[in-house]
Specification:
The chain is of the alpha/beta class. 43% of the residues lie in helices and 14% in strands. The protein is globular, with a radius of gyration of 19 Å. The protein binds pyridoxal-5'-phosphate.
């Protein structure tokens, strides 16, 4: 089937307008401050292997959809760790350890956050304990071990791995570096979000004089989306439409925006987009997202393989892109929203639109990536 007719059938699953949408730069920067954001950039940009990841034009896709431009932030190139998560966990490890070589770092992870924490710990010569659920692939576990971490597999889902991490960390006096906030644990998740905001600093310098009309942000517990919103408040002097995309099976941000308060959802089937298969938005991200997000959209897993292949076959851009499962939902939701003429009009997707999407990860799980490419 030719590419054009193929994408014309793509659909989003759910769409929601945030009735409480009111972007307030001051409110956002009172939660994650300018100085916290600037400090993250100062520290991370001084790391040996630091260089900005590419911002790629998906010019073939924007021509097909008759949009002005679609920009894709390619995080497959982030520090050889293959995802934006490299910016968060490793930065938090550096800040909380404060040069102390004796502490032991611990975390629970769906994969990429743990890789970042393990890498950051190794860089500083710290011991590291990583808790993973039964759903995290052995491939991802192996990569974390290759950075010297002890990987502990826990029966059950992500929540179970986090509970076990908290329990053992209390017993052994390990320092938890988690990307999820809870009532008395907000500082470290804020550090991870500040780390992620480096992406927006880079983008603000890569975009030259153009302005984004729409920014589509993937969400699991919302840390990356909120970090980007904070980056928008810090680095841009205009307000694009901010759209959060989630797997249809794990729409915890959409459900919370719908009701106006944090909703814990029940996940019936884990999404293939493992890093985004989360049942509850984290506290600090929620405070940022609840008013700044203009729309929420969800997508099914059905288009993941097709998008991974199209990125790799240079059907969307001049160059080949290695984009893993969590790199796909921004593109899928954009195509789905575009194909619905009412929604297209409602959110002003037209020939003047410049859209920003995030290629959050490359082939971070090489085995899954190969499967998606070939199936
Ligand atoms: C690989 C990966 N993990 C996790 C997430 C979700 O991040 P957060 O839990 O901070 O919302 C994403 C976002 O798309 C992702 O691509």
């Amino acid at each position: 089937m030719p590419f054009e007719s193929e994408v014309s059938n793509w659909k989003y699953s759910n769409f929601l307008i945030n009735k409480k949408n009111k972007f307030s730069k001051n409110d956002i920067l009172s939660i994650l401050s300018k100085s916290e954001i600037d400090e993250a950039y100062r520290v991370i940009s001084a790391w040996d292997s630091y260089s900005p990841t590419p911002l790629i034009s998906l010019n073939k896709l924007s021509e097909k959809l008759k949009l002005n431009n679609i920009f894709y932030k390619d995080e497959s190139k982030r520090f050889n760790l293959k995802s934006f998560k490299a910016l968060g966990g490793a930065y938090a490890v550096e800040k909380v350890s404060k040069g102390n070589k004796e502490i032991v770092i611990s975390t629970a992870t769906a994969g990429n956050h743990g890789r970042s924490v393990a890498w950051g710990s190794k860089k500083l010569g710290l011991k590291c304990k990583i808790f993973i659920s039964e759903y995290v692939s052995e491939f991802r576990a192996k990569v974390m071990r290759s950075f010297g971490a002890d990987v502990i597999r826990v029966k059950g889902n992500y929540d179970a791995s986090l509970k076990e991490c908290v329990k053992q960390s209390k017993q052994n006096n390990w320092q938890i570096v988690q990307d999820v906030a809870w009532e008395d644990y907000k500082l470290v998740p804020k550090l991870t979000m500040a780390g992620y905001s480096v992406m927006m600093k880079e983008i603000s310098e890569q975009i030259n004089n153009e302005q984004f009309s729409h920014v589509i942000l993937q969400a699991g517990v919302g840390g990356m989306a909120a970090g980007m919103v904070a980056g928008i408040a810090r680095y841009l002097n205009y307000i694009p439409k901010i759209i959060v995309v989630e797997p249809e099976s794990a729409a915890c941000v959409l459900e919370s925006i719908k009701s106006g308060k944090i909703e814990k959802i029940s996940i019936k089937k884990e999404s293939l987009m493992g890093g985004m298969s989360c049942d509850e938005v984290s506290l600090v991200p929620w405070e940022i997202l609840k008013n700044s997000v203009s729309h929420c959209v969800t997508v099914s897993d059905n288009y993941i393989g097709k998008t991974v292949k199209s990125l790799s076959n240079s059907e969307f851009s001049e160059e080949k892109i290695v984009g893993g499962e969590c790199s796909t939902p921004g593109i899928v939701s954009l195509i789905g929203m575009y194909n619905d003429i009412e929604i297209r009009k409602k959110i002003n997707l037209n020939e003047n639109s410049n859209i920003l999407v995030f290629g959050c990860e490359g082939d971070a799980d090489e085995e899954l990536y190969q499967k998606l490419l070939t199936e």
